[in-house]
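Late entry, copper (II) ion complex.
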Amino acid sequence: MLRDLLLVLLAASTALGAALPTTTACITPQKRPSWHDMRETDKKAYLAANVCLLTSPQKLNRLPGAKTRWDELVSLHQIHALQIHTTGQFLPYHRYYLNILSFLLQECGYSGPLPYWDETRDAGKFSSSPVFDPATGFGGSGKGPQNCVADGPFVNLTVNIGPGFKSQPRCVNRRITNALSNQCGATQVAAATSGSTYTQALDAIYSGPHLLGHMALAMMDGDSITSSGDPLFFLHHGFMDKMWWDWQSKDLTKRLKDISGLNAQDPAVGFSEFPGGMEVESAMWGKPTPEILAVTPDPTSGDGGKTITLGHVMSSLGIIPNVTVADVMDIKGGYLCYEYV
Ligand SMILES: [Cu+2]
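Prediction complete; structure with ligand written out below:
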């Protein structure tokens, strides 16, 4: 009798617990368009908000070298660089990173969707893409010894984070190489999203369209640590995020939970695209300074070991709340609420 009563009480409390929402439901996903398909007014509003961040003062007072709000975003990438490249964190952290930009743009009055760049439409001929239009795009290939952008909205603007682990004022710079951009075509994208496991998709996206796109654009001196200084970075990474989602969408039941890899670089490997491991690679961009190390989060947070799990905690160091990998696995899961069109 007593046991039956306890079972009823237990069932009732479980039902109550289940009724409590843990996150808001995603009813109307925001539609993220390719740059090609955006209205001119929306393009201009997006670019203006980026310029606003590049020219607004920093707010956190704790990110080394950051002078502007934009610098804080770039600094986050610098601080996390050795945790989020050539590791299992690559795709989830950059998805979260896009969401941080989305939040920051709202501070500058832009609440529209983040655009991405469907690079397959411009593969092999990046420089003639509408993305680089001087009036309604990001401006074109840089000029002069520093490859500073010479037209478009980011002319004469300064980024104070980078190169590498330094913090020095630099112009927004890039150099487009059309021949490398043919690796971002539909065939290559299909190949990058054809694997059956997260590890396969991660490696193929990272070493394929992601890397070749970076090489074709050489944003911020082609620097792996701080290439997000060029606002164009987020259009390229929107495309990478879409690629991951397209891969996930082929088998959501399995792939919304499929995560694997390390949560920080293996020192013997470093960045997979460079030989020699971390020590040799540090000749290119230096090592994290004591100031950077002082604010670098523990890469094993939420994992309890060196392997990334769904419980892995990702940090924006106070720009927006920290989240777990589980929170960003589904772009329509509630914490995130968008789709690619
Ligand atoms: Cu990155």
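The two ends are 58 Å apart (CA to CA). Will revisit in the morning.
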